[in-house]
């Protein structure tokens, strides 16, 4: 059993132990430098799958974790299997952790109204837009008398899709987040099918939805299956929608929405507490978990991975050295550690 994590053992369906709390043995993945001095270090683990499914890991990548929103492609797959039919732009929003741009909020409302529902049926918390890169939008919202709403929650696309799926199947909507609800049981069985793991721990995500603990290797296999899927399958429809509408999956200034269009066939999804998944149509897959949960570390990991896979583009370069500001000007950057880059180069 790997030290400092919820480790997996055996073959086929796997059961997980109670997590240890000591992850100090994990290697440094990302350095934060300011004015030439390394100010912070983010440790964690990375797991890669090759086109033939061969696995490599850096750090305790045998660990289990809550995938958080990186699980949304599987949740959306379960909804499509249950009959959810949406335009690609709207299906992409179901997989999203969006920034609550006007277009995204409108799309979530379209999903609800198409099912005869309203914002009041949502059970995700009320929130303000997640637009730190566009602060004037939030200032304008507040000045106009705007207030937090469930539609502006970053998971409202997923919740709207869940509700629409319930209506299609004649399931109750007031308790759609209950882990014993038919929808949540369907999602859990889909997760078990795609990961090959029996789920033994189910928690509550930040949006209120059930979220299982999943092993990183199993999460990688599941996302790879979505990424390589035929477009006539439910998971293939989900992947195609996210690739066609990356701006709906994140936001105009977000890393995932900027990188997906410049890497053919790339599917990327982030989750809270430092979890990211990325996969190509040829099966190459990366899963990363940052020990301290810092989402800011993940773009540099993604960029370094894509560069090691042979992709070269100014957008990737920009996220490989995400600027750190001082007085509003770049004075440093978040970059992948030398040890991580060396390990990636070995593959």
Largest sheet: 8 strands, antiparallel
Give the number of domains.
1
Helical percent range? 25-40%
In the predicted model, the low-confidence regions spanning at least 5 consecutive residues are 6-20
Q: Give the helices and strands as they follow along the chain.
A: EEEEHHHHHHEEEHHHHEEEHHEEH
Number of strands: 12
State the helix count.
13
The gyration radius over C-alpha positions equals: 19 Å
Q: What is the arithmetic mean of pLDDT?
A: 91
The amount of beta strand, in percent, is 15-25%
Write the layout of secondary structure elements.
Layout: E1 28-34, E2 37-49, E3 55-58, E4 64-65, H1 72-81, H2 88-94, H3 102-114, H4 135-143, H5 156-169, H6 182-195, E5 202-204, E6 210-212, E7 214-215, H7 216-228, H8 234-244, H9 246-249, H10 255-259, E8 267-271, E9 275-279, E10 285-290, H11 298-308, H12 314-320, E11 322-326, E12 329-336, H13 338-346
Helix pairs in contact: 1-5, 1-6, 1-8, 2-3, 2-5, 2-8, 3-5, 7-8, 11-12, 11-13
Describe this structure as you would to a colleague.
With 347 residues, the chain is of the alpha+beta class. It has one domain (47-346). It is 37% helix and 18% strand. The chain contains 13 helices and twelve strands. The protein has helices spanning 72-81, 88-94, 102-114, 135-143, 156-169, 182-195, 216-228, 234-244, 246-249, 255-259, 298-308, 314-320, 338-346; strands at residues 28-34, 37-49, 55-58, 64-65, 202-204, 210-212, 214-215, 267-271, 275-279, 285-290, 322-326, 329-336. Strands 1, 2, 3, 8, 9, 10, 11 and 12 form an eight-stranded antiparallel β-sheet that branches. Strands 4-7 form a two-stranded antiparallel ribbon. β8 and β9 (275-279) form a beta hairpin.
């Amino acid at each position: 059993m790997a030290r400092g994590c919820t480790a997996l053992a055996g073959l086929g369906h796997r059961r997980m132990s109670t997590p240890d709390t000591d992850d100090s043995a994990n290697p440094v993945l990302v350095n934060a430098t300011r004015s030439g001095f390394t100010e912070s270090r983010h440790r964690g683990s990375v797991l890669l799958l090759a086109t033939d499914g061969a696995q490599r890991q850096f750090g305790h990548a045998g660990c289990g974790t809550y995938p958080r929103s990186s699980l949304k492609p599987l949740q959306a797959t379960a909804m499509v299997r249950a009959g959810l039919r949406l335009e690609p732009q709207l299906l992409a929003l179901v997989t999203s952790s969006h920034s609550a741009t006007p277009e995204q909020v409108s799309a979530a409302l379209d999903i609800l109204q198409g099912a005869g529902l309203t914002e009041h049926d949502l059970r995700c918390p009320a929130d303000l837009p997640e637009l730190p890169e566009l602060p004037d939008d939030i200032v304008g919202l507040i000045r106009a008398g705007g207030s937090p709403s469930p539609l502006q929650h970053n998971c409202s696309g997923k919740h709207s899709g869940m509700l629409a799926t319930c209506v299609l199947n004649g399931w109750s909507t007031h308790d759609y987040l209950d882990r014993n609800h038919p929808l949540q049981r369907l999602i859990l069985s889909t997760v078990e099918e795609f990961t090959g793991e029996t789920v033994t721990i189910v928690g509550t995500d930040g949006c209120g939805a059930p979220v299982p603990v999943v092993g990183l290797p199993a999460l990688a296999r599941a996302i790879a299956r979505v990424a390589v899927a035929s477009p006539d399958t439910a998971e293939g429809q989900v992947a195609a929608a996210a690739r066609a509408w990356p701006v709906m999956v994140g936001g105009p200034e977000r890393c995932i929405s900027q990188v997906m269009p410049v890497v053919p066939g790339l599917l990327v999804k982030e989750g809270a507490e430092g979890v990211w998944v990325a996969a190509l149509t040829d099966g190459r897959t990366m899963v990363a978990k940052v020990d301290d949960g810092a989402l800011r570390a993940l773009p540099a990991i993604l960029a370094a991975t894509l560069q090691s896979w042979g992709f070269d583009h100014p957008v990737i370069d920009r996220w490989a050295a995400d600027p750190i500001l001082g007085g509003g000007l770049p004075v440093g950057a978040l970059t992948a550690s030398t040890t991580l880059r060396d390990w990636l180069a070995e593959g």
